[in-house]
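Translate structure to sequence.
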């Protein structure tokens, strides 16, 4: 994500969840030229801002290349869902909206 999705190096907020067999329901054929296997991996990414079509395409390609070369996951088994939102829809701590925190940080500098 740092190399291809314009994410800062220290931006580390990740949840990794492995589900038991049978707990992930995924249509093997939906919008997939090659049928998905039981090894399907779904990435749900929440981004604070939208990326260009070119940036997203570069990220998808790099992700599938890296997964195939490092752990043998077939590109057909990789699904990515990117959702974007605004800064005010985040609260990083103390129940304070992130946009209020940023405004507060700017006034104390």
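Result:
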């Amino acid at each position: 994500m740092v190399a291809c999705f314009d994410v800062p190096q220290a931006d580390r907020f990740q949840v990794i969840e492995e589900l038991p067999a049978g707990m992930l329901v995924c249509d093997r054929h939906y919008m997939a030229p090659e049928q998905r296997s039981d090894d399907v991996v779904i990435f749900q990414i929440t981004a604070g801002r939208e990326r260009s079509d070119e940036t997203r395409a570069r990220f998808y390609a790099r992700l599938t290349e890296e997964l195939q070369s490092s752990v043998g996951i077939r590109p057909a088994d990789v699904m990515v869902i990117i959702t974007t939102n605004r800064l005010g829809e985040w609260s990083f701590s103390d129940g304070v909206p992130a946009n209020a925190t940023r405004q507060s940080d700017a006034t104390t500098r």
